[in-house]
Amino acid sequence: MNRCISGLLLLACLAVPAAAQSPEERHPWGRWKNPFNSVHMEVSPCGELVCGKVVYANDKAKADAAKGGNPDFIGVNLLEDFQPTGPGSWAGKVFVPDLNHHFRGELTLEPDDSLLVKGCLATHVGCKHQVWTRVQTD
């Protein structure tokens, strides 16, 4: 195959929007912000698993984390050991820094490209959730 054709194929592949991907091809990689825009996390692969690390926190979020025993909030993994459970969904551990505790968690990449993060005391008991949105980068 010549360079021109392979270059056209590359451009064609790049032009396909994320929404056109099948659920099996979608992933949560990237930077996400919580509903208050007070915390941003970078979600990335950790070997075969999914992790989410704090890359930004405002002063209030840092203070809340410090009260919970996490004075160095930037770099903390909020999502740990997430494994695929189906197309666009994962299960693992969610860390809540102001409580300094890990909870059973679920991630769901929604059709609108938001990320539903859910944490529970036990399987489907005592659950809370947040909808995180992608941080658009240029």
From TrEMBL:
Task: Outline the extent of the DUF2147 domain.
Answer: 30-134
- Could you confirm whether the keyword Signal appears in this record? yes
Q: Does the keyword section mention Zinc-finger?
A: no
Query: From what superkingdom does this record's organism come?
Result: Bacteria
Signal sequence bounds: 1-20
Instruction: List, alphabetically, the InterPro entries matched.
Output: DUF2147 (IPR019223)
- Keywords attached to this entry: Signal
> Which Pfam families does this entry report, sorted A to Z?
DUF2147
- Protein name (Swiss-Prot/TrEMBL): DUF2147 domain-containing protein
**Species annotation:** Sandaracinobacter neustonicus
